[in-house]
Write a structure and sequence with these properties.
There is one protein chain. The longest helix has 18 residues. With 224 residues, the protein is of the alpha/beta class. The chain starts with a strand and ends in a 36-residue tail after the last helix. α1 crosses α2 and α3 crosses α6. The strands form 2 sheets. The protein has a 5-stranded mixed beta sheet with strand order 3-2-1-4-5, sandwiched between helices. Strands 8-7-6-9 form a 4-stranded mixed beta sheet. It is built from 6 helices and 9 strands, in the order βββαβαβαββββααα. A hairpin with a 2-residue loop joins β7 and β8.
Length: 224
């Protein structure tokens, strides 16, 4: 097994290679405006650092969001293009699942990322592997209370959500090493073949609202 994973659903452009047992190489750059510019060099870098070639990859995994339309499109289109080039199957994993997995918690908690517009993308987990609610998009004050919080969305609105709920040391953004490890774990368990796995899915974006950019409407009539 050789998994190439990457995520562009948040400001972090992150890529990693996993051999089924451990992360061989990982690269992460936080830059919300340069997803398209940074992703391919990051993929090339982790392949080189891992000492493997693209043709050796047996599975390609992209973070499926939720996230901004433009960032998600970069990662998922790249996954589909690389799949067509190599013949390796492409999969999607909810980016919040990758964050939850990286948090490593064995108790119920929430994962939250920035959804802009003063809102949060979030999901509730029974433990690091089990999502039980979401993903959803809501205002910070509408999130379920009383549970530990992981992610940049929680940190951004810590005053409203409660600073005591933030999990110390947990990553703010999805990291490709965790994404690759989670995918490798699911693949080793036989997921992906039937297409009905709750974690490892088809590489399709999770959009929870319409993109900001829209087609212009018909021109207004000019009257004298």
């Amino acid at each position: 097994m050789l998994v190439l994973a990457f995520d562009t659903a948040t400001p972090a452009v992150t890529a990693a290679v996993h051999d089924g047992e451990r992360v061989l190489a990982e690269s992460t750059t936080v830059d919300a405006r340069r997803h398209g510019e940074l992703l391919v060099p990051a993929v090339e870098r982790v392949l080189r650092d891992a000492g493997v070639a693209l043709r050796d990859v047996t599975a390609i995994v992209a973070g499926a969001g939720p996230g901004p339309y433009t960032g998600l499109r970069v990662g998922l289109m790249t996954a589909q293009a690389l799949s067509s080039t190599t013949g390796a199957p492409a999969y999607g994993v909810c980016s919040l699942d990758a964050l939850a997995y990286a948090a490593g918690l064995a108790e119920p908690f929430l994962v939250a990322t920035d959804a802009r517009r003063k809102e949060i993308f979030w999901a509730r987990y029974a433990d690091m592997r089990t999502r039980v609610e979401g993903p959803s998009v809501d205002r910070p004050q509408d999130l379920p209370g009383g549970l530990p919080l992981v992610g940049a969305g929680a940190a951004m609105y810590a005053e409203a959500l409660g600073t005591d709920r933030l999990v110390a040391g947990a990553p703010e953004h999805p990291l490709a090493g965790a994404l690759a490890a989670l995918a490798a774990e699911r693949l080793a368990a036989g997921a992906g073949a039937a297409g009905d796995d709750p974690v490892l899915t088809s590489p399709r974006p999770i959009y929870l609202r319409r993109p900001d950019a829209r087609e212009p409407g018909p021109p207004k009539k000019v009257t004298a």
